[in-house]
Amino acid sequence: MSIKPKNSLLQVNNLKKYYPVYTGMFLKKKIGDVRAVDGISFEILNGETLGLVGESGCGKTTCGRSILQLDPPTSGSVIFQGKDITQLRKQELRAIRKKIQVIFQDPFGSLNPRMTARNIIGELLIIHGMTDNKTEYHEQTDHLFMSVGLDPAMADRYPHEFSGGQRQRIGIARALSVKPELIVCDEPVSALDVSIQAQIINLLQDLQERFQLTYLFIAHDLAVVRHLSDRVAVMYLGNIVEIADRAELYINPLHPYTKALFSAVPIPDPEIERTREHLLIFGEVGSPFHPPAGCKFHPRCPFAKSVCREEPPFPGKTIDDNHWVACHLIQ
Amino acid sequence: MIDRTMTPLLEVRNLQTHFFTDQGIIRAVNGISYDLHEGETLGIVGESGCGKSISAFSILRLIPNPPGKIVNGEVIFEGTDLLQLSDREMCAVRGNKIAMIFQEPMTSLNPVLTIGHQVMEPMVLHQKIGKKQAIQESIQLLSKVQLSEPEARMNSFPHQLSGGMRQRVMIAMGMSCKPKLIIADEPTTALDVTIQAQLLELMKGLTRDIGTALILITHNLGIVARYADRVLVMYAGRIVEKATAKKLYSSPSHPYTIGLLASVPRLDQDLKKSLSPIEGQPPDLLNLPKGCAFHPRCRYRIPKCFTQSPELEQISDNHEKACWVDVH
Prior knowledge:
The complex is a heterodimer. Chain A has a single domain, classed as P-loop containing nucleotide triphosphate hydrolases (Rossmann fold), CATH 3.40.50.300. Chain A has eleven helices and twelve strands. Chain A has helices at residues 60-67, 90-97, 117-127, 134-147, 164-176, 194-211, 222-228, 246-251, 256-264, 270-273, 306-310; strands spanning 8-23, 29-45, 49-53, 75-80, 83-84, 100-103, 182-186, 214-219, 231-236, 239-245, 317-320, 323-325. In chain A, helix 3 (117-127) crosses helix 4, helix 3 packs parallel to helix 5 (164-176) and helix 5 (164-176) runs parallel beside helix 6 (194-211). Chain A is globular and about 70 Å long. Chain B has helices at 52-59, 87-93, 115-127, 131-144, 150-153, 163-175, 193-210, 221-227, 245-250, 255-263, 303-307; strands at residues 10-21, 24-36, 41-45, 68-77, 80-81, 98-101, 181-185, 213-218, 230-235, 238-244, 313-316, 319-321. Chain B has an eight-stranded mixed beta sheet, with helices on both faces. In chain B, strands 2-1-4-5 form a four-stranded antiparallel beta sheet. Chain B is α/β, with parallel strands linked by helices. Chain B has a domain at 10-107 and 181-235: 3-Layer(aba) Sandwich (Rossmann fold). Chains A and B meet through helix 6, helix 7, helix 8, helix 9 and helix 10 of A and helix 7, helix 8, helix 9 and helix 10 of B.
């Protein structure tokens, strides 16, 4: 990654997304909330890639959807280029949507099966009035096809005629079509085979350099996240527990959960893998409907003390400019 | 240590499983051979559609027929060819001497039967023990796989358990008759990494305790590196490389294996290094290319690769590859 200006593109402040749970057939009574995202704050700088990792149900996808305003947050603010986009009206939001795009996980479910690849990619051009006539539309979509490594001759085919990797390229071309500044990548490679996964990862990196894109890269594969991100945030049960520069985080993980995650990922080299130390954690992720009191990780934490059971570890501790952690055990 | 001078527990010889569809014949498994010794862990790696799961299903004759059919080969387990057994004799092998752990813990348990019923079933069926004893042993098994509150879980239904807990139940079922061989088909793919690590450690420990051989089918090269003694790499229905885990990772020799290893980002590698993916698309099994199936994606190909398909050849002790080119 080259030197980039250090101004912030997106700030997320104390973002919460609760889904209410009701009981009863007719007289619905609220019995509580599923706290999918429970107060997270972070910042994405211009031109960087922020990785967001965590296991299923930790709220990483909900966080992405809340930033995109696909699931408006319960509280908190999302400030994009100085403007709080949670407070915008629909018309104003449409202009912002051009600047924030998304790539979804499932290349099979996220493309409309009844539209040709060209129309899937070109739809946004029409909606946002970025194309005047048919020739220009064809030129622009052909160009998008080529920029993601697809042959424009295939543009008039339907999604089922493409392989998983090719479909994901179509999804990327669609996101690129409106020249966005921020792309939320929600597990863009986890449904793909490893050889294809590497192609898409390289493509995302090339595109970032060519179009000066900023990514929020959501994934559960730590090796992929480390490879692509400048900084990495680790989520657990609705909270961010650690944020650091990628090199720093992988060399010096401080939160016990981060350590456990790293040691759970096997390294494809028997000599290293069988001799390195493994920190196994027990039990399963708690429920976001009844999250554990205190630090949410304490029931699984091998180092938990009494303070962990009683007090939430927030606002956390700043170790240095590039490293923040929410754990009572770190002094 | 594994004694390789003994007769192998399982010998697969020239196994071919084809699917006869309206569009043509899919040669999902196209002539594979390997041995497995007692207590050994064999990893089978490859991408989706390479035939790794079908080759394992073929051992237990779990191929839906039609459209699938094992058209050729031998699967010799403890001296008998499983492919020649009658259906009734085969039933006495499945779940008893060879057990299977499936990928999807969500769909491979019966939703209308209790956990207890399902864990007990193979014991009652194969070992002819009484129900009371079976219940006792099931509770022991469930606590061995570290399922919390095993007595209470006996009466739970699968939907009341999380994915990780269901997979623990699957492992308990697989272990219930102390089989000689367990085939685990992507046992942890659907699970989170911390749960995956717990379950793999558990499986490794249990198989070691009862001396069971394990076939571990996965697309995750890291899991194979950690657990397997020997590894088969499959591509388009054939084995392209066969080696001990150490050799495969220290000196991969088939271009496909080399490509796979260069495709995965590693937690311990230099951050600046970019990935070198395998170009092109996975093979279309209906229209496999002539010659070596990998040649359209191979960067080392020579003219011979276009016309002739290479066979596995020994390149050093415990290391075979199917490739015309010397790649290092």
